[in-house]
Design a protein that fits this description.
Number of strands: 24
Distance between the termini: 39 Å
Largest sheet: 7 strands, mixed
Structural class: alpha+beta
Number of helices: 18
Oligomer: single chain
């Protein structure tokens, strides 16, 4: 099923008469793939979306990669039809995608299994059980914590739990990289997705093969790394037939979704602290380089020559809101009229708590239910909780109270959400509303920094929202007490049940060497790696 929208054209600023050419941005999300055409003259955008359903289980979040490609080709065909143009009107293609996903490919670049996604927690135990010295080296290299939200955890889980499959793998890629391979036949990744493996050297953006080997992984599994705005291939004849694009259309590497949203928020011109309200709520704060972030946060590259970003991920927001919607009809515009002091407390940790704790024992909890509480009250409580969590992250990352924070993403369409964020963060917010920020960011990456800086001003609208003084004081006091009590409850429950993720695992300080040797033997016997000779020519020439 397709969802299609168009944005009214911006004033063309004296360029009337030039033939409109389009930048195509493709966002490979967890539950949908979106294709956005951005007019390089008018700034007008068209969007089409095709749904693709991930699979959930206890600690499991997976998706079939072929589903992403099917959704992508349908979305591209749909957006070309919506705009009333042919594939020859597309100047260049770029992609963004859900980060920390791991897609294992064989020598023919066919998926060997479902992709493992960011919220999948199964690799947490494998990370924790690494030899202490190796963990320290990984943390020192990346500056990031060793958490299940990074692709390294997925690779380690596969290595220990599906070794036969890993022995047949030729390369792993992220979500957007798989769809780009389907478009071009060329395999590569960009620094933003590569850095989430925790084994990319921030100094030169090259894989640390020595450290990869110490982790028991094969360095040949790691794809070439190209800048996000570098040419990575061209649309093949097969992909052209499937999508309607022109054969030979240039395709750039693209970025992870977080970096793409930063680009859509104007980071290619003026980086500012930015909140993205999506399935997960993320906070991005610019910083000059890859210096180690405060504990519980991570640092990521955006594009060459641009600031790096400090990232806080709350693992909640849209996910909890989707759960509320499944309970019954929900009129979100009602939430702005509710008094914060009369709300219950909703701790929305449906899949665990994110930054700065990344505590997978936590679960969604509601305090203060009474007969007057309905779905609107729970939604307002959710929005307030997101704001309180964001405020803590802003303080931890050194963002001053007087600094305005930009807010973007699907959640900005709900006025009550934005107002409660301003109230709970206790600062003015700049609301930037645009069609599909991630896909737009991908298109802007393809445009290049100079042209992107001009185009971003023509797309979407923005306005400011000020906090209401003292409106959430009582709710914040109850929220912090509830968070403390819930944390004690879930930790006690875990101790009582004896279900800590580390329970029953061997000490890999001693077993790691044996595992690494076993892995090398399996690889030698069962697989021909993707060599420089067998990789597509478009990739070989850039290595």
């Amino acid at each position: 099923m397709s969802d299609t929208t168009s944005e009214p054209p911006a004033r063309p600023e004296g360029r009337v008469g030039r033939r409109e050419r389009y930048l195509l941005g493709i966002d490979v999300g967890t539950s949908a793939v979106k294709a956005l055409l951005l007019g390089s003259v008018s700034g007008r955008s068209h969007v089409a979306a095709e749904r693709c359903q991930p699979r959930f289980g206890p600690g499991v979040v997976e998706a079939p990669p072929t589903g992403w490609w099917e959704a992508a080709r349908r979305a591209v065909a749909a957006v070309l039809h919506l705009a009333g143009v042919g594939g020859d009107a597309v100047e260049i293609v770029s992609l963004a995608g859900n980060m920390s996903s791991v897609v294992l490919l064989d020598n023919a670049f066919r998926p060997l299994r479902s992709a493992i996604l960011l919220a999948d927690t199964r690799g947490e135990a494998e990370l924790r059980a690494l030899p202490t010295a190796v963990k320290r080296r990984v943390a020192a290299l990346s500056g990031n914590p060793l958490g299940f939200g990074f692709s390294l955890s997925k690779l380690l889980w596969l290595s220990f739990n599906e070794p036969e499959l890993m022995s047949r793998a030729a390369v792993w890629v992220a979500a957007k990289d798989f769809v780009r391979e389907c478009l071009t036949g060329a395999v590569a990744t960009d620094p933003s997705d590569a850095f989430n493996s925790l084994v990319l050297d921030p100094a030169d953006l090259r894989w640390r093969s020595d450290l990869i080997g110490e982790l028991g992984l094969d360095p040949q599994l790691f794809p070439p790394v190209l800048p996000g705005d570098a040419l990575a291939g061209a649309v093949s004849s097969e992909a052209a037939a499937a999508t309607g694009l022109r054969v030979g259309t240039p395709v750039v590497t693209g970025t992870g979704d977080v970096a793409a949203v930063a680009c859509a928020a104007g980071w290619l011109a003026t980086p500012v602290p930015t909140v993205s309200l999506g399935t997960s709520t993320t906070l991005m704060v610019p910083r000059p380089g890859a210096a180690r972030p405060p504990e519980g946060f991570s640092v990521h590259p955006v594009l060459p020559g641009r600031p790096w970003l400090l990232l806080a991920s709350l693992l909640t927001g849209g996910l909890a809101l989707d759960w509320l919607r499944r309970l019954g009809p929900l009129e979100l515009q009602q939430v702005g009229d509710l008094e914060p002091e009369q709300l219950p407390v909703f701790l929305p940790y449906l899949s665990g708590r994110g930054s700065p704790d990344f505590d997978t024992t936590q679960r969604g909890t509601i305090f203060g239910l009474d007969p007057s509480v309905g779905l609107p009250q729970l939604a307002a409580s959710l929005f307030a909780a997101v704001g309180f969590e964001l405020r803590d992250c802003l303080v931890a990352l050194g963002v001053r109270d007087e600094e305005t924070v930009m807010v973007t993403g699907g959640g900005v369409a709900v006025n009550g959400f934005v107002q409660l964020l301003a109230d709970t963060m206790r600062r003015e917010v700049l609301v930037r509303s645009m069609n599909e920020a991630t896909a737009l960011g991908a298109a802007l990456v393809a445009a290049g920094p100079e042209r992107a800086g001009k185009l971003v001003r023509t797309v979407g609208t923005q306005h400011r929202v000020s906090p209401r003084a003292g409106s959430v004081d009582a709710l914040e006091e109850r929220y912090r007490l509830a968070r403390q009590q819930a944390g004690e409850f879930y930790r006690a429950l875990e101790r009582r049940a004896g279900t800590h993720p580390m329970a029953g695992l061997p000490d890999r300080e001693h077993s790691g060497a044996a595992h690494r040797e076993s892995g090398r033997t399996q690889r030698a016997q069962g697989r021909s790696p993707v060599s420089a000779e067998t990789r597509p020519r478009a990739i070989r020439e850039r290595q």
